[in-house]
Design brief:
Strand content: 15-25%
Helix content: 25-40%
Largest sheet: 7 strands, mixed
Distance between the termini: 60 Å
Length: 357
């Protein structure tokens, strides 16, 4: 049989340099306790009707848009539903950045999809630091941002959990007026709702807020996100988005998840998770195997271990957490906040490490 060869000459010049995003689920791991993807430990049930799947769905399901607008305290015209916040990132880069000409600014370490998306669209990366964002002056930040079209601020930041003050975000947006768009990624905002930038939309035309149902709403498997912005910013994005991005099944579940009783349940679960996180922080602070703990916001804690081999021991035992290389050191670990039984496994692991010293 003749072996078929793919004609590499038809590939774009930059394709070989691309690196796919390494998600928590991209590795073929086996385990019994999963605390690596910042998922909610709470499973939910929904009512579904599959009788009309022969028809195309509404491009932007009105009931879901209205429900999320009410939840966010915005007008329905300020809400665009997407396939997770990741599609929101891709849409912004594709809409507002010119290939092989423009750049995006991001503050490292941060969420990896900003870079992956820009790379795939041949948009340059202006790699800045979290230290600059949190401690630098607005003037210093503006100088570093330069001519970047999009400025991504993950707030709270993943994987550090750090928060950028809303006054600084406001000042950055003001300085970038008519120059760039400030993208505030609020995937974890339900864990610190008072820090949301949504109120800034009434004052700035160049701010967009990304949201998701994957974290606090416990719907990571649904792949549902929202882009919040003023109508003029969203209008070009609506020209670029896929014709039917939201399936009927997704819309049905999302609508139920945004009912008032479901939101009340979500907030109750957030309270429980934040309480569990406080306990985990105590265990990590007390552990002799841990050298540093980043006490930020979100449903996770990131810590540095004294010995990277201890991370491997946990993974081999079935306790699956997310290893990271941060600040050029490969002994960092992000631990998602699970339920009581799951976090008990983390406690036992830490105690065992302490006994070995």
């Amino acid at each position: 049989m003749t072996k078929l060869l793919f004609p590499n000459n038809i590939l774009p010049d930059n394709i070989n340099a691309l690196t796919a995003y390494s998600s928590a689920k991209s590795q073929k791991l086996t385990g019994s306790t999963w605390l690596n993807a910042n998922e909610s430990p709470y499973a939910k049930t929904f009512e579904l009707s599959l009788s009309d799947l022969n028809r195309y769905p509404d491009p932007q399901p009105e009931k879901v848009i209205n429900a999320y607008a009410q939840y966010a305290g915005l007008g329905a015209e300020q809400v665009l539903m997407t396939r997770g916040a990741d599609e929101g990132i891709e849409l912004l880069v594709r809409t507002y950045c010119k290939s092989d000409k423009d750049s995006i600014a991001l503050f490292l370490p941060t969420y990896g999809m900003y870079k992956v998306t820009a790379d795939s669209h041949n948009v340059a990366i202006n790699a800045l630091t979290q230290e600059l964002l949190l401690e630098g002056s607005v003037e210093q930040i503006m100088t570093a941002v330069g001519n970047s079209k999009l400025v991504f601020i993950c707030n709270p930041n993943n994987p550090t959990g750090s928060l950028t003050d809303l006054n600084k975000i406001s000042a950055i947006a003001n300085a970038l007026e008519n120059k760039a768009i400030v993208v505030v990624d609020e995937a974890y905002i339900e864990f610190c709702p008072q820090q949301t930038a949504k109120a800034l939309l009434q004052d700035f035309a160049n701010i967009v807020v990304l949201r998701t149902l994957s974290k606090a709403f416990a719907l990571a498997g649904l792949r549902t996100g929202f882009m919040l912005a003023n109508t003029a910013l969203l209008a070009p994005v609506r020209k670029v988005i896929a014709p039917y991005p939201v399936s009927r099944v997704v819309a049905t579940i999302a609508e139920q998840a945004l009912q008032s009783d479901a939101i009340t349940q979500m907030r109750r679960q957030v309270t429980i998770l934040n309480r569990a996180k406080a306990m985990l922080l105590q265990w990590l602070d007390a552990s002799t195997a841990v050298s540093q703990v980043l006490n930020g916001q979100g449903n996770f804690v990131t810590a540095q271990l004294k010995d990277k081999a201890d991370i491997d021991k946990a993974m081999k035992s079935g306790l699956i957490m997310r290893p990271f290389t941060l600040y050029e050191q490969d002994n960092w670990l992000r631990i998602s906040i699970g339920n009581e039984q799951e976090l008990e496994q983390v406690k036992l692991w830490l105690e065992a490490l302490g006994n070995e010293l």
